[in-house]
C-alpha cells in the first residue's frame, strides 16, 4: 500500500485551504420591505416579487 | 457533445419520470390557485410539458374545416397522454353509473376536462408562455431551491387587477372609465398593460385626494391586509 513519505505540515494544509473560502451570496434590498433578499427570487420576508406580485402567504407582520 | 441531452432525469427511471410529470401537470391544472410549489428543476421540466398540453387545448378552440369533431377528439386523446387519464376507470364505472352520473373519476380526467373547458378558452389568443416560474429560495431541510409554477392570467391575478381597477375608479371616475374602455378594446395582454400604467397615474392622483375613503371601500372584498399590500406597491411605483 502506498503511504505518505513525509509529514504534512500545518503550513502546507493551510496554504492549500487559503483558496477554499466560500463567499456569502449576493443580496440586494427588497424594494418593498428593505430586507436583504437574493436577486431574481421572491422576497422571503414579505413575499413580493417585481413589486406588484404578492407571491407568498405572509406568516405574520 | 451535449446532443440529445435536453432534459433532466430527476433521478428517476423513464416511467417514474413521466408519471411524476403527469402528476405535477394534473396538480397544477387542478389546484384551486392554479399554482404549485415544487423544486426548481421539477418546475423547469414541467413547464414545457404542460405548455405542450395547453397548446393542444388551445388548438381545439380554433379548429376549422369539416372534420372539427374528429380533430377535437384527436386533440383530446393526445392531451390525455399528459395526464393519468386512462379510460380503464370509465369502463368500470359504467356499471354503476346510475349513482354517480358523469362526475370526473380521477384527478387526471378532471384536469383534462378543465383544460379543454376553461384553459383552452382562456389562452385562445396567447401564443405560448402559459406558465410562470417564480423562484423562492432554498428549502430548510435539504437546501433544494423551491419555485412556484403557476398558470398566467389566473383568476387570482385577474381579481387583483380588477380590484386595482375598482380602486382607481372610485378615486378618479373619468380616467378610470377611459382606461376600462381601452382594456375592453385591446387584447387581454395589451389591455392589461395599458391599464397598469394608467392605474399608476390614478393612484398618484388618489394620494392627493381623499384616499382613506378608497381604503375603507376596498377592505370589504378580500380583507384589509390585501389592499394595504397593493397600496404599498403603488407607493413603490411612485417612488421609482
Order of helices and strands of chain A: HEEEE
**Oligomer category:** heterodimer
**Parts with pLDDT < 50 across at least 5 consecutive residues of chain A:** none
Distance between the termini of chain A: 63 Å
CATH architectural label of the largest domain in chain B? Alpha-Beta Complex
Task: Supply Rg of chain A.
Answer: 22 Å
Largest interface: A-B, 17 and 15 residues
Helix/strand-derived class of chain B? mainly alpha
How is this structure best described in words?
- The complex is a heterodimer of chains A (61) and B (240).
- By secondary structure, chain A is α+β, with helices and mostly antiparallel strands.
- Helices cover 13% and strands 13% of the residues of chain A.
- Chain A has a two-stranded antiparallel sheet with strand order 1-2.
- Chain A is rod-shaped, with a radius of gyration of 22 Å.
- The mean pLDDT of chain A is 86.
- Chain B has 240 residues and is mostly helical.
- Chain B folds into two domains: 14-86 and 106-153, Ribosomal protein L17 (50s Ribosomal Protein L17, Chain: A, Alpha-Beta Complex); 154-240.
- Chain B is built from eleven helices and three strands.
- Chain B has helices at 14-30, 40-61, 68-80, 88-93, 97-100, 107-122, 155-171, 173-185, 188-208, 212-222, 224-239, and strands at residues 35-39, 131-138, 145-151.
- In chain B, strand 2 and strand 3 (145-151) form a beta hairpin.
- In chain B, helix 1 packs across helix 6 (107-122), helix 7 (155-171) packs antiparallel against helix 10 (212-222) and helix 8 packs antiparallel against helix 9.
- Chains A and B meet through strand 3 and strand 4 of A and strand 2 and helix 11 of B.
